[in-house]
Amino acid sequence: MNPILKNLIDVLTLERLEENLFRGINHDFGTHRVYGGQVLGQAIKAAQYTVQNVSVHSLHAYFLRMGDLKAPIIYEVDRSRDGKSFFARRVVAIQHGRPIFTLAASFQKSEDGLEYQEQIPEVPSPQATADINTYLESILSQSPEKYRLNRNIYSPFELRPVEPLDVDVPHIREPRRHLWIRTLDKLPDEVDLHRSILAYISDFSLLDTNLLPHGLHILDPHVQVASIDHAMWFHREFRIDDWLLYTCEGVSASGARGLARGRFFNTDGCLVASTMQEGLIRVLKK
User: Fold this and answer.
1) What pLDDT does residue 146 have?
2) Which residues are catalytic, by number?
3) C-beta of residue 93 within 8 angstroms of C-beta of residue 99
4) What 3-state class would DSSP assign to 44?
5) Sequence-ordered list of residues with C-beta below 8 angstroms from that of 147, at least 6 positions apart, any chain
6) Which pLDDT tens digit goes with each residue over 103-115?
7) What sign results for the dihedral spanned by CA atoms 35, 38, 44, 46?
8) Nearest residue to 41 (alpha-carbon basis) of 73, 78, 79, 64
9) N or C, where is the chain less crowded by C-beta within 10 Å?
10) Which residues are within 8 A (CB) of 141 and not within 5 positions of it... i.e. 6 or more apart?
11) Angstrom distances, CA of residue 29 to CA of 98, 193, 252
12) How far apart are CA 178 and CA 197, in angstroms?
């Protein structure tokens, strides 16, 4: 397996300390903070360790404090409910005796039901788009710390944006973005691993869409963006090592906060997951 992807899987694998207590390591992206998607993915894995033969179908998380890269994260799981079909878990991520993140997650046994979904947008195929990493290499000199975060989070994946990035001279445009995404290598046939990795990457490039109507971009050193909360729903089975279309849309920006929603479609047009996120958005004085 690709070593960069293997490292991501290792980061999302936790050490069991007690029956409901787990410890996770941090991946240093070359910045001064813990990436929120890492904590989200690890918290899902912690909850998953306490259930059997069911998969997460929905979650809601709050980012409370910036994580310390130099300290491990302890995940405490509360087994809120074990039902016949649904299982509920609460997870608190702790550093230095204080919570930095909370997660409420629901798990469901597989069953059949009604079928409906919204349609996949009409966009070019992944084969007709270019990989983002070549472009990121060309802008290394711009806001180096933010660049390193972007580049290192992307590194286990192939990402192919449908719309061209315009960091050099950003244009005002509609708050929508479409990205084709898949891991660099094949993964084991583990549903829970694919969902944890999808949650990991869903925390990235979503809130940025609220900047597009203002001609701003995430690498601007005067733009501050940070996650506040994150919700996600898993609708159908998928593989993150096959192409998925990530559609991101800004919903609202006001009061130094922004709300955005995202959807994941496979190449057959099936809607496999949805997400929404609210975050801090500030434009600092130059």
Assistant:
1) 55
2) 203, 227, 277
3) yes
4) helix
5) 136, 139, 140, 219
6) 999 999 999 999 9
7) negative
8) 73
9) C
10) none
11) 23, 21, 29
12) 19
In the chain, domain spans: 3-110+130-283
- Tens of pLDDT along the chain (286 residues) come to 899 899 999 999 999 999 999 999 998 766 677 889 999 999 999 999 999 999 999 999 999 999 998 999 999 999 999 999 999 999 999 999 999 999 999 999 999 999 999 999 999 999 999 887 666 665 555 555 555 555 677 789 998 989 877 666 678 889 999 999 999 999 999 999 999 999 999 988 899 899 999 988 877 778 888 899 999 999 999 999 999 999 999 999 999 999 999 999 999 999 999 999 999 999 988 7
Tell me the pTM.
0.91
The DSSP H or E segment spanning 266 is strand 257-266
CA-to-CA separations, 136 to 62, 75, 143, 151, in angstroms, rounded: 30, 34, 12, 7
Query: Which residue, 238, 228, 105, is CA-closest to 181?
Result: 238
One of 1.25.40.10, 2.40.160.210, 1.10.340.30, 3.30.420.10 is the CATH number of 3-110+130-283, namely 2.40.160.210
